[in-house]
Structure to design on (914 residues):
């Protein structure tokens, strides 16, 4: 077993959001031969860690939401927003696992009573685009959404699940982006600075007399329930990837471990994320100036976090390491090693390309985090020669051009295209 | 004597066929654009010879708008709102499943199937004025819409808007017997339509259409018009029982008459117009092509409904920005056709021979070389194997369009520009063998009645009646080979 855990002490107390970028840049090639099984075993450990972190940060978010609902103050709302931001870090890294594929479809995943479809699960956890009118009031319509159906059904997890996608797929009622909308509200600033500005008094009780919008009690119930559902969903997914699950038929980990197409699955998920989902849907469509809300976290203006950690999901899968929210580095037999020992030139091409992308994505990320931040929707509005916009576009093109490296690897390993059934969001 | 030669050929197929100068490129159904895939994503790749990142991004962008659902107006993603008020579905991909074809509803004996998620009904009047008739004859207009449900029945609607109608299908199950005793079950549809709040007119012709596959469209757009028109034989002057008619249709962009190439009856001249037509007709989304919502005069709730015009960045008087239409058009031009898997296997080559001997290739024309194109260089001058003559043919009574009582109308009723109620464009056969890999629910023919390729073959009538009769006399080996060939496409 090549997997080892290194405590990256220097990073453990640092703010999570400044971490991660550099340690993989000088990836040390393995000194002993790694097998396909080694790579897969390490991947299962990484997958579990990313989901476990997603769950942990979602539980923190839930605690902050409970505090907010108990005492709706600006500070408590800010704390909940900060918890949302931290929760996005591991989740976006777990997204490399977000697609159903040929190896998971009709693979008997219901045998263990656990999750049956990754796509269905994902549609409940991170569906996008989201038409917020299905949830709450919007500019120009103060009565829209489930929250404002005064005499509507009680808001329960079952009800929100049943309403998800009713009357149109964009009528998303659950998941991260529903929580994001509830915490921030609509971002009506276009490409100017500023995210959504929901008043904390939207979360006062009706009887307090301070409710700033109608139906505060229903809004409170909604936020409470939708956060609980996220926790439930992440609990279920984390259970699919535990060490025990890896040895239990019908789990995702076991299915992956025993699939002859495990490496193929890893590579094609990386390709889908890098060249299509991230480069196109989550970055280029916004950058091309079509619409500033064609960004992944449009209410909170935290798209820079979402996209940076989506890139990390690709890097993690390649370099075989994942840094936990506690700063622990999980590392082991990697796809990088597996490729390197067969063809160092292809490995180097891949490694160089990923590092070049990392540099540009870091420019975008840091712009969003600096003292006077330039967020992704502001970058959309920048002149074409602004350094942040140039870096963002450069990253997009480099991500797409990664396709030729993927092609080389596919040829090297004699792999055929794999179906990823999930729709882009 | 001839028979003996044939069986010898079968025995020594590999060597003998190799000696026959077989086309070694034919596994590349779409030339250099063909993708190698045997999976459910087989129809979703871009032309593999696109290398330029800018074009790949354009394709991916189109894919995003093809896949993702559109929201009702005032959605926060303003570039992706404006769905309805009336629509058939809210995302392109939900009908063109994984870029493949849709399906007709299932229904056991005595049941009515109501799954119309990937198909729709068109409607056009047959009792019209001489002036209208003349305009259609001159390709100035497609047809005259029904006053109750319009030119297309939309069975879904936004919140608080009334859907146009409810619809269902039931089947009579028939058994067809081959000369050698082999039998196959067919299902013959009866359509049930009930409009809401008005009556579909007595003279209206309904036409059931399943969402077609999306692959290879840009190549079809580049087949030389002269080659297509040259095969026309409207009066069947060569007496081979096959006529073949080109449809000529109105081109919105050119403000002129053009050859129809796309749609089950070749009712659209370009991929762009076809896409804009689908945005409007199927999803209620206006474009720079078609800027008016398709609400009928009596649909007051539809007419007073808000629209999704413009987006956060720019003002425009329609819902789908021209940038988005550009992307979707680029995407639709470049969906790749999969390579054939076993084009040179002896049974497949033998099946192709049967196909040609029967005369299927009289309409299912094997191959073309696309014209040169500077706009789409990857699609330019490619040797392609779509197996279509791109012409309309009389397919017989059983496949003729019908009225609201599901009774066949007169075959020669014009329903879409020059196309008659009994006429259908020869479907390209490329990709047909992977249709049910891409979506196991996929069914065949314009109305999705055929559950397998062989069922589709046996529904051929009219100009292809003779060919179908020959198929019924095939022995098991020829029949199996024919199917092997079709499944390899």
């Amino acid at each position: 077993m090549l997997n080892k855990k290194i405590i990256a002490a220097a990073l453990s107390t640092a703010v999570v959001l400044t971490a991660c970028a550099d340690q993989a840049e000088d990836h040390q090639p393995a000194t002993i031969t790694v097998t396909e099984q080694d790579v897969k075993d390490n991947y299962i450990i990484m997958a579990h860690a990313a989901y476990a972190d997603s769950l942990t940060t979602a539980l923190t978010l839930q605690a902050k939401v409970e505090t907010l609902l108990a005492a709706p103050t600006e500070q408590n709302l800010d704390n909940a927003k900060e918890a949302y931001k931290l929760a996005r870090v591991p989740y976006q890294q777990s997204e490399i696992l977000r697609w159903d594929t040929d190896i998971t479809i009709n693979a008997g995943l219901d045998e263990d009573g656990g999750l049956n479809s990754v796509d269905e699960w994902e549609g409940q956890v991170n569906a996008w685009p989201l038409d917020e009118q299905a949830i709450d009031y919007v500019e120009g319509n103060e009565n829209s959404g489930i929250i404002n159906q005064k005499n509507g059904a009680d808001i329960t997890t079952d009800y929100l699940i049943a309403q998800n996608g009713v009357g149109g797929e964009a009528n998303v009622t659950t998941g991260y982006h529903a929580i994001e909308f509830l915490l921030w509200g609509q971002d009506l600033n276009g490409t100017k600075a500023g995210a959504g500005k929901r008043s904390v008094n939207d979360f006062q009780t009706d009887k307090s007399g301070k409710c700033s919008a109608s139906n505060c009690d229903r809004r409170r119930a909604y936020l409470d329930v939708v956060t609980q559902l996220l926790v439930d969903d992440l609990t279920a997914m984390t259970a699919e990837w535990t060490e025990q699950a890896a040895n239990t038929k019908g789990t995702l980990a076991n299915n992956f471990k025993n699939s002859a197409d495990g490496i193929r699955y890893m590579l094609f998920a990386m390709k889908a994320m890098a060249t299509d989902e991230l480069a196109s849907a989550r970055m280029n469509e916004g950058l091309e100036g079509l619409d500033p809300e064609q960004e992944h976290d449009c209410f909170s203006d935290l798209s820079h976090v979402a996209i940076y950690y989506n890139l990390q999901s690709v890097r993690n899968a390649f370099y075989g390491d994942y840094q936990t929210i506690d700063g622990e580095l999980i590392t082991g037999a990697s796809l990088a090693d597996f490729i390197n020992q067969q063809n160092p030139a292809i490995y180097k091409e891949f490694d160089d390309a990923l590092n070049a992308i990392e540099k540009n994505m870091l420019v975008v990320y840091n712009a969003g985090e600096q003292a006077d931040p330039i967020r992704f929707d502001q970058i959309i509005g920048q002149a074409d020669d602004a350094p942040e916009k140039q870096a963002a576009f450069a990253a997009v093109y480099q991500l797409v051009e990664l396709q030729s490296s993927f092609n080389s690897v596919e040829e090297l390993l004699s792999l055929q295209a794999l179906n990823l059934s999930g729709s882009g969001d | 004597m001839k028979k003996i030669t044939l069986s010898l050929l079968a025995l020594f197929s590999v060597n003998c066929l190799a000696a026959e100068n077989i086309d070694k490129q034919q596994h590349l159904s779409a030339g250099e654009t063909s993708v190698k895939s045997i999976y459910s994503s087989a129809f979703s790749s871009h032309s593999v010879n696109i290398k330029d990142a800018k074009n790949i991004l354009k394709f991916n962008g189109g894919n995003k708008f093809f896949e993702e659902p559109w929201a009702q107006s005032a959605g926060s993603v303003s570039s992706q709102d404006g769905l309805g008020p009336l629509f058939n579905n809210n995302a392109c991909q939900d009908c063109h499943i994984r870029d493949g074809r849709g399906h007709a509803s299932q229904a056991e004996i005595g049941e009515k199937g109501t799954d119309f998620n990937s198909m729709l009904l068109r409607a056009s009047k047959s009792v019209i004025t001489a002036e209208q008739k003349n305009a259609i004859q001159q390709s100035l207009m497609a047809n005259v819409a029904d006053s109750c449900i319009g030119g297309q029945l939309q069975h879904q609607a936004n919140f608080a808007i009334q859907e146009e109608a409810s619809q269902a299908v039931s089947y009579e199950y028939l058994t067809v017997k081959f000369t050698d005793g082999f039998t196959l079950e067919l299902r013959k549809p009866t359509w049930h339509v009930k409009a809401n709040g008005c009556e579909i007119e007595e003279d209206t012709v309904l036409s059931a259409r399943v969402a077609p596959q999306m692959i290879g469209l840009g190549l079809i757009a580049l087949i030389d018009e002269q080659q297509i028109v040259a095969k026309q034989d409207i009066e069947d002057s060569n007496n081979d029982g096959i006529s073949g008619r080109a449809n000529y249709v109105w081109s919105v962009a050119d403000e002129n008459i053009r050859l129809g190439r796309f749609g089950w009856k070749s009712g659209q001249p370009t991929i762009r117009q076809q896409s804009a037509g689908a945005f409007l007709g199927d999803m209620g989304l206006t474009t720079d092509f078609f800027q008016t919502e398709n609400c009928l005069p009596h649909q007051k709730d539809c007419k007073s409904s808000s629209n999704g015009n413009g987006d956060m960045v720019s003002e425009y008087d329609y819902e789908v920005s021209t940038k988005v239409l550009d992307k979707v058009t680029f995407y639709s031009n470049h969906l790749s056709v999969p390579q054939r898997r076993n084009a040179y296997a002896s049974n497949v080559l033998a099946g192709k021979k049967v196909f040609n001997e029967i005369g299927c290739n009289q309409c299912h024309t094997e191959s073309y070389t696309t014209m040169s194109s500077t706009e789409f260089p990857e699609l330019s001058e490619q040797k392609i194997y779509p197996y279509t003559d791109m012409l309309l043919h009389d397919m017989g009574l059983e496949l003729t369009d019908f009225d609201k009582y599901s009774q066949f109308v007169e075959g020669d009723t014009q329903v879409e520009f020059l196309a008659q109620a009994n006429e259908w464009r020869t479907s390209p056969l490329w990709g047909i063998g992977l249709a049910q890999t891409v979506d196991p629910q996929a069914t065949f023919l314009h109305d999705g009645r055929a559950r397998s390729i062989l069922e589709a073959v046996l529904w051929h009538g009219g100009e292809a009646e003779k060919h179908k009769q020959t198929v019924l006399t095939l022995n098991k080996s020829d029949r199996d080979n024919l199917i092997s060939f079709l499944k390899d496409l």
